[in-house]
From TrEMBL:
It comes from the Bacteria. Residues 244-336 form the Methyltransferase type domain. TPR repeats lie at residues 35-68, 103-136. GO terms for biological process: methylation; protein O-linked glycosylation. This is Methyltransferase domain-containing protein. It comes from Roseomonas acroporae.
Amino acid sequence: MSDLLRDATARHAAGDLDGAERLYRRVLRQQPREANALNLLGVVARQRGQPEAALAPIRQALALRPDSAVFNANLGAALAECGRLPEAVAALRHALATRPDDAVTLRNLGQALCALGQAVDALAPLRRAVALAPDAAEAWLALAHAWRDAGEAAEAAGAAEAALRCAGIAPPLAAQARFLLAALGGPQAVPDRAPADYVRDLFDGFAPRFEAELTGPLGYRTPALLAALLERSGLAQDRARTVLDLGCGTGLSGAALAGFAGRLEGLDLSPRMLAQARRRGLYDALHEADLLEWLPVHPAAFDLVAAADVLNYLGDLGPALRAMATALVPGGIAAFSVEAGEEAPYALGEALRFRHDPGHVEALAAATGFVVLAREAAVLRREKGRDVAGALFVLRR
Ligand SMILES: C[S@@+](CC[C@H](N)C(=O)[O-])C[C@H]1O[C@@H](n2cnc3c(N)ncnc32)[C@H](O)[C@@H]1O
């Protein structure tokens, strides 16, 4: 390794991404065929949350050393982050052919297979990953999710408990493990919301595939249903309002709300969902924040606040309703969907989303000071071949 490349990797290891990138590029000006520097440029791009930018340099590295397990593993991870799952699986398998005991690559393969709906196939690499790295909470959690997707609740709970036993488990992973255990019907109290870090990671990972999957196989239609109910509740599509799309995701809901908005803002926990929303060019402003923290400090800022398929990540809707009321002008409108359940006030399903009893939501809205303009039962989308039943609400402050 040249001295310059050694300096670059030292900066990289110290977390100085800009400095490392500068030096990798200098190495490449001197030695354009230095495959490690190309691959490491890809690592830098991935660490910056720009997996698309990682693909070209990693592929150049692989053109020089096609069978490098390290480069194939890096390519597979980057492709998975880009939502290109079948290609990711191929690259990860290629890497494992020469380095079968790489626990991180095994975990990445298991997670990619799970995301492809092949949870049963994901079990073998994930079990191998935890056998190789029994103190890796992330691998145990990935195995827990795979068992859950495969319909094996007891095995899933066992893996989540193993994650919690890992020495030094990071607090967000511990919160996720406890949330999963509660969703699996464990003895722990059901939390009043999904952990924010879990929701952020879930949607950051889902962002590149979200629209294709939601509007394709899942038949998602909540934004259009909510917009139609707003019109039937007497709101004209006159572009007269300041509107906030809460949990805006990639902007499917913003597209449905745009007709009501003179100014349209979006808010979401997930930076990668927000990056997709930004590309639509639809929003006047986008905010990366937790709705429960952001709304209370923006009083009387909006005429309409809408949340399509968002409140199912919260159990107790009291704080969210109060926060929406604060952010609305007097007479302002709140519109949202919930997944409908019969247990009052709410229950946490195995799919890690909350269901709410619509009667209880209506009573809570009235107790918060809202007038209920409309409440309607609706099929929000499909999941594993079954309709997801929901309820839509339009409230006036
Ligand atoms: C299923 S997506 C729906 C996106 C969009 N509303 C639509 O209809 O396509 C749910 C979104 O809500 C966001 N979300 C969930 N809980 C949130 C919270 N507490 N604060 C902000 N955003 C949240 C997630 O990050 C995700 O992007």
